[in-house]
Specification:
Helix content: 40-55%
InterPro entries: Cro/C1-type_HTH, HTH_LacI, LacI/GalR-like_sensor, Lambda_DNA-bd_dom_sf, Peripla_BP_I
Distance between the termini: 85 Å
Radius of gyration: 24 Å
GO molecular function, one term: DNA binding
Keywords: DNA-binding, Transcription, Transcription regulation
Protein name: LacI family DNA-binding transcriptional regulator
Pfam families: LacI, Peripla_BP_3
Structural class: alpha/beta
Length: 344
């Protein structure tokens, strides 16, 4: 009887590729801390040996579910209609596709917040990527307590420092929203606006506060103050309500900074319906460089916000921690102005 040939192992792949077993393990899991040449040598060794990873055995041995939770702290109706979330989740999926990791979508608003906590404390997932969050979610505090690898899209509410050598509050990727708000304000001032109003995002979200701060800084540098600060919530309906309020206040404004493009498009529709010409009487600038900004009439000036790149960077941060490299600090991307007809 011919003895059955044993299946090739990670050690076999490491020997043929001329690298360590740990390096092969990282490469097979899709870890990013492996050079291109090394990854190619490992791929050739795997092909030569016919190595097939035993995912079930590995997951059991490492007590892993091979699942990363993508957490969104917003009502489900908004999650499935706002392109920010679709683009962000698509970015996560794009980065995880060539790896062994699977993602699962979890909501964290209302009653879902308690369900999420139960899942995390029960060890159902191996890591968490928070796509959307608010101050009162206390998600950073929860993730400190459960001591699970994580990253946030956007600066989280500050959690307590634990024994892992870093704070969850440092585990985020974000746009420099203060700079973005400053650029928006400076652009309106540079276009000759002197009576400028703003419609903000929700003040329990760091990005909304920071965009407002940057905008106010730009006006202060020009010796100006906003003629009105109206608080929206990133929903187009809130912009409609706040634009009507702005018109009722009769501030004779000539510039308007709106904290998201979807709100700005809604604001422009209200202004036009009430006889305001854009940019003749009011120059309008949004934020995000969303697809809708190209389709408004006139086309909307805006500030870039690379959602896909942020999502991929946050995913990289989580994968690095799962690979044993948890010390990467915040990653901050820089915005830029996209000037279109609404501010000409």
């Amino acid at each position: 009887m011919v003895a059955r040939r044993s299946a090739p192992t990670l050690d076999d792949v490491a020997r043929v590729a001329g690298v360590s077993r740990a390096t092969v393990s990282r490469a097979v899991r899709g870890g990013h801390l492996v050079s291109g040449d090394t990854r190619q040598a490992i791929a050739e060794a795997i092909k030569q040996l016919g190595y097939v990873p035993n995912q079930v055995a590995r997951s059991l041995a490492m007590r892993r579910s091979n699942t990363i939770a993508v957490v969104v702290s917003e009502p489900h109706a908004r999650v499935f209609r706002d392109p920010f979330f679709a683009t962000s989740v698509a970015g996560v999926a794009e980065r995880l596709e060539p790896t062994d990791w699977q993602m699962a979508l979890y909501l964290a608003y209302g009653g879902y917040r308690q369900k999420l906590e139960q899942f995390l404390r029960g060890g159902t997932v191996d890591a968490v990527l928070v796509v959307s969050h608010h101050d009162d979610d206390l998600l950073a505090t929860l993730l400190e307590e459960v001591a699970i690898p994580c990253a946030f899209l956007g600066r989280p509410a500050r959690g307590e420092r634990m024994d892992r050598g870093y704070s969850v509050a440092e585990r985020f990727v974000d746009l420099d929203n203060v700079v973005g708000g400053r650029i928006a304000g400076q652009h309106l001032v540079g276009q000759g606006c002197r009576r400028i109003a703003t419609i903000t995002g929700p003040m329990d979200v760091a990005s909304a506060r920071e965009r407002l701060d940057g905008f106010q800084q730009a006006l202060a540098e020009a010796g100006l103050e906003p003629v009105g600060v109206y608080h929206g919530n990133f929903e187009p309906e809130s912009a409609q309500v706040q634009t009507l309020e702005l018109l009722r206040d009769e501030n004779d404004f000539d510039g308007l900074f709106v904290a998201s493009d979807h709100m700005a498009a809604a604001a422009m529709a209200v202004l036009t319906a009430h006889g305001k010409t854009i940019p003749g009487q009011v120059r309008v600038i949004g934020f995000d460089d969303a697809e809708i900004a190209k389709g408004t009439v006139p086309a909307l000036s805006t500030i870039t916000n690379p959602w896909r790149e942020l999502a991929i960077a946050a995913t990289e941060m989580v994968l690095a921690e799962l690979d044993g490299d948890p010390h990467g600090g915040p990653v901050i991307l820089q915005p830029r102005l996209v000037a279109r007809q609404s501010t000409e």
